[in-house]
From TrEMBL:
InterPro entries: ERT1_acuK_gluconeogen_tf, Zn2Cys6_DnaBD. Residues 51-81 form the Zn(2)-C6 fungal-type domain. GO terms for molecular function: DNA binding; DNA-binding transcription factor activity, RNA polymerase II-specific; zinc ion binding. This is Zn(2)-C6 fungal-type domain-containing protein. Residues 87-108 have a biased composition (Basic residues). Residues 1-24, 85-134 are annotated as: Disordered. Keywords: DNA-binding, Metal-binding, Nucleus, Transcription, Transcription regulation, Zinc.
Length: 217
DNA sequence: TTTCTCGGACAGTCAAGCGC
DNA sequence: CGCTTGACTGTCCGAGAAAA
């Protein structure tokens, strides 16, 4: 990476760093492509477009909300959780002649080898498959539930705020299929999140699948 | 044991170059 | 002029170090 690092980081760690964190639960997405438990291939990593200055300095995962979850965890407010500034791109750099590749196709910088673009890639909006066997599924929070939490103000002028989004990573299945074989449900949120947004929460009622995506408006 | 630091892999962006 | 390529820049994983 190209950023100059400063020794006096903000001293903040990532939510998922601690070895005590239940690794079967992520409160925001890490990888865009869902990989079944039987596959050992790692999915493509997701990145936010613009990390906040705190996460950037600490080289830690950020999320689009402001304050981001990491800042929420450490008690930073909107005033401190600021978008980092991006450098202007250099123009006029000369390049040598292009090497020809075998075969044609869409942008192949990252997909030359391996299977072709599969339908399992989420659409640009960031929806996740909910088909049986999927390891990552959106929690079907209703607007009612979202309304329990503070609206995250948008930094884009004219754009209204939005809610934090949460996704659950389902733990790998046991060998023996069947509902009885699932381990007991893990704690839904890390204690740090619970401290920031204490219960009670309305109980989650699974909704009938009406489409490929969870219901959220 | 927990928190912090940071090297480097990975991902996204976009202008130069290419070919129709 | 649209598509491809690859340089450039940002994000953040994950391992090791430091602190409590």
């Amino acid at each position: 990476m190209a950023l100059p690092r400063q020794k006096n980081g903000d001293g903040i760690d990532d939510l998922s760093d601690s070895p005590t964190t239940d690794s079967s639960i992520n409160i925001y997405p890490r990888f865009s492509t869902v990989v079944s438990a039987s596959q050992s291939v790692r999915a493509k990593r997701m990145q936010v477009k613009n990390a906040c200055t705190k996460c950037q300095k600490a080289c830690k995962k950020c999320d689009p909300a402001r304050p981001c979850l990491r800042c929420v965890r450490y008690g930073f407010g909107v005033e401190e959780c600021l978008n980092s500034q991006r450098k202007e791109r250099r123009k006029g750099a000369k390049r040598g002649p292009y090497k020809k590749r075998n075969g044609r196709g869409k942008h192949t910088a990252h997909s030359d080898e391996g299977e072709p673009e599969s339908e399992s890639s989420p659409p640009p909006g960031g929806s996740y498959p909910t088909a049986p066997g999927a390891d990552l599924a959106p929690v079907a929070y209703t607007p009612t539930l979202y309304a329990q939490y503070p609206l995250v103000p948008s930094h884009t002028p004219g754009e209204s705020g939005y809610f934090h989004q949460f996704y659950l990573t389902i733990a790998p299945r046991q060998e023996s299929e069947g509902s009885a074989a699932y381990p007991p449900p893990p704690q839904l949120f890390p204690t740090t999140f619970l401290a920031a947004y204490p219960p009670p929460y309305p109980s989650y009622v699974p909704q009938a699948q009406t489409g490929p995506e969870g219901q959220m408006s």
